[in-house]
Amino acid sequence: MRWTISSTVTKRIRCQLSNRPIILLSLLFLLMACTGHQTEREWQIVDSLNDRAHAWQYRNIDSLHATATLALKKARDLHYADGEAEALNHLMAERFQQMDFDSAAVLADHVSSLTQNQIELLVADIMQMRIAQRTSDNRAFFIHRSHALRRVRRIAEEEAMLTPHMTRRFNVARSDLHIVSSTYFYYVDQQERALAEIRAAEPLSMLPGDTAQWLYYCYMRGSGGLSDFTAPEDITRDEFDYLFKCFTLAKNHGYLFFQANAAQSLATLFADSTRRAIVRDYKPNAEDYLLSVFGADNTAQHMGEVALERFTQYDDLYQEACALRTLGELDVEAGRYESAIDHFAAALSCVNFHHLCYYAADEVLMPDSTDALLSIFEPQPDTISVERRWMQSAHIKTVPEWIAGIRQQLSVAFSALD
Asked: How far is CA 170 from the centre of its chain?
């Protein structure tokens, strides 16, 4: 609604200014209030755009980027620093998914210089934790985790004063903090701490209207190693329950990222004949549904192939390589060793592609040399491997766990050929 002053009223005000200054003051307050309401409505438009960007995060990377960019432009036009910081955090998530770790870190620094909003600073710290976990930077992980935990305590002291939008952001951030911490502790073999973190994430992951957080939690619980049970049969049932929920819900709601991750983990589970028999006895209807989706023959193989297709569609290079590695592992289990080597070599090609995208100009590696990229064969003992040179470089953020897992499986496949 636009507020206007008629010419008649204006004339009357002019006639009475000398005798009634209170009228001018009241008018000024009225105009300020109207402007404030207009600004608040415009800020709500930015908040709505940022909510839409969040909804796209695990569905479509291009839509996430487009919506967050629109929110960023609108926030800057309005000088809405908190909305700008939130949009930058969404763009940071997009850069992380693209494995552009340097750009993500630059955006995080920009958020820190832009706002004192503790929630958006918390989100930026958690993204820095993700980068550190992915790139095996242990020191950076704990620095940013310490910052994040302090921010959580500070925000919690004033939680009653948060707007609904800020409350949603805070709950998502706390859920992510526990899930990212659980992932880190799982990979460094601190099982009890990993379990404690994923348990803490559960109540924060059941957020009204935020299916993605629940999918994230279900995937983590089902993907292996984070079950509360100890007996192998109970672990299999528990993990299957979570993976089946994750797959069906993600499939029904268009979350490509979680649909692919769940399919990949189900492939590993179904490739184990003992575990698959447990599933068949436990949930025959659920198994029948999966057979109708993936086929009754070579079900695990088809699950792995669907995971690769979905990750490619989602444009997640890291997960594409992981899916290729899973397909190679299925080949090894089936005795198809040459096919396994092809899949592992393709996974290494993903690693090389990442390097060429972001670090081809690094002067240390002489990128015009074929020695600057990974190959399926290890170097001679008296030479330094390419991956070690990458890890020793201060300019390069690669993923050691990514490379090590592929190398390990290549060794298994080559050994089986002998």
From this structure: 16
- 92, 382, 416 from 135: Cα distances, Å: 16, 26, 31
364: pLDDT strictly greater than 70 = no
Closest of 347, 351, 360, 334 to residue 416, by C-alpha: 334
Residue 380: DSSP 8-state: P
pTM given for the model: 0.86
Rounded Cα distance between 75 and 87, Å, is 8
Distance CA 24, CA 342 (A): 80
Closest among 200, 205, 243 to 221, alpha carbons compared: 243
Indicate whether 7 pLDDT > 50: no
Contact status, residue 357 vs residue 321, Cβ threshold 8 Å = no
Number of residues in the chain? 418
Residue 279 has which token pair?
Answer: 């599933």
Task: Answer whether 398's CB lies under 8 Å from 329's CB.
Answer: no
- d(C-alpha 344, C-alpha 375), whole Å: 10
CA distance linking residue 230 with residue 220, whole number of Å: 17
**What element of type H or E holds 172?**
helix 164-187
Using a 10 angstrom Cβ sphere, with 0-12 exposed, 13-18 middle and 19 or more buried, the burial of residue 303 is buried
* Tokens of residue 405, six digits: 């897992």
Is residue 240 scored above 90 in pLDDT? yes
Residue 92 Cα distances to 69, 257, 356, angstroms: 11, 17, 21
Q: 373 by DSSP, 3-state: which?
A: coil
Asked if 202 contacts 218 with a C-beta cutoff of 8 angstroms, the reply is no
Nearest by Cα to 61 from 102, 91, 105: 91
Confidence of residue 360 (pLDDT cuts 50, 70, 90): confident
